[in-house]
Amino acid sequence: MEKKRILSGMRPTGPLHLGNLLGALDNWKSLQDEYDCFFFIADWHALTTDYEQTGNIAQNIREMAMDWLSVGLDPERSTLFVQSHIKEHAELFLLLSMITPVPWLERNPTYKDQIVQLDNKDLSTFGFLGYPVLQAADIIMYKAHGVPVGVDQVPHVELTREIVRRFNFIYGEVFPEPQSLLAPTPKILGADRRKMSKSYGNAIYLSDTPEMIGKRVSEMVTDPARMRKKDPGDPDICNVYTFHGLYTDKAKVEGIAAACRSAEIGCVECKKLMAANLAEALGPIREKRAYFESQPGLVGEVIAQGDEKARAVARKTLEEVRQVVKVD
Ligand code: TRP
Ligand code: SF4
Q: How many Å lie between the centroid of ligand 2 and the Cα of residue 304?
């Protein structure tokens, strides 16, 4: 039986952190068994907000590809490619933009949200408004059935479905309607208890050494009410304890909670235990990353192979599209 196809993308914003791993990559990795996976680096999408700072994009693409391979995205099973290497995305984006009503884009919750959040940037651009149309082109280019994304991206997949319906209605049935694939993901907070994010400077990176992990964990906010070691703590509201739940031996986790409640263990020691377990869990990723760093040509080769596979599909889709739109 043919595997169903899924597709997802990430903007190349720099090295990946634990939030990216637990929120997306671990899920992508496990989907590789069941699905025909297309994963790509959405570098054109990075331009929608960072059009004035494009100097880091090439390096960020490299870092991201290296992180993907290090966590176990497998080029033998998945097609890994870069959006801007497949020019067909731009052509399909253009054709879809012809049929997409502007009000559909203006009412997009992510758009309205980002305009407010990123008020240090001028986002009153055509490209930023059209962000979801480019995303729709990314998805339907490969006729993907499923799109593994976080909740913040669900409106974009919804809009893709609406664009697909309109396209199919006007030109004939070409594209399937994609579904969002939401995976349950543990909620990971940064050192300051805000959402872990590169822009908050509160993240632990996949490429961090054990020493850096130790330092970042030592700075983590714990139970804010626990001022001294002799004060009993509440592990249930402590971010360090959430991490214990993910990285410490199940048999030991309850003991830590009890020792925290009875003030037998202090936060300094508790953090050291957790940091050691976290560093160990990330060990294999770090080792694979070191390997890819030592083989400068390899990442480029892997991407070139993925590009080739993606391009073959994209060309076929565009032939079909030009034919039904009658612009071939
Ligand atoms: N918008 C997505 C994000 O910011 C990235 C993305 C671009 C994407 N194209 C996509 C995700 C296609 C899924 C499918 O995370
Ligand atoms: Fe958190 Fe551990 Fe301190 Fe308890 S002892 S508050 S679980 S860091």
A: 47
DSSP 209-251: -HHHHHHHHHT----TT--STTS---GGG-HHHHHHHHHS-HH
Ligand nearest to the CA of 217: 2
Give the pLDDT confidence of 206-225 residue by residue, as tens digits.
999 999 999 999 999 999 99
Residue 63, in any domain of the structure? yes
Q: Are residues 234 and 132 in the same domain?
A: no
How confident is the model over 284-309, as pLDDT tens digits? 999 999 999 999 899 999 999 999 99
**Distance (Å) from CA 161 to ligand 1 centroid:** 15
Does residue 223's CB lie within 6 angstroms of at least one atom of ligand 2? yes
Q: Looking at the CA of 108, name the nearest ligand.
A: 1
Whether the model pTM is above 0.90? yes
Q: Quick one: tokens of 105?
A: 């884009």
Q: For residues 31 and 169, state if they share a domain.
A: yes
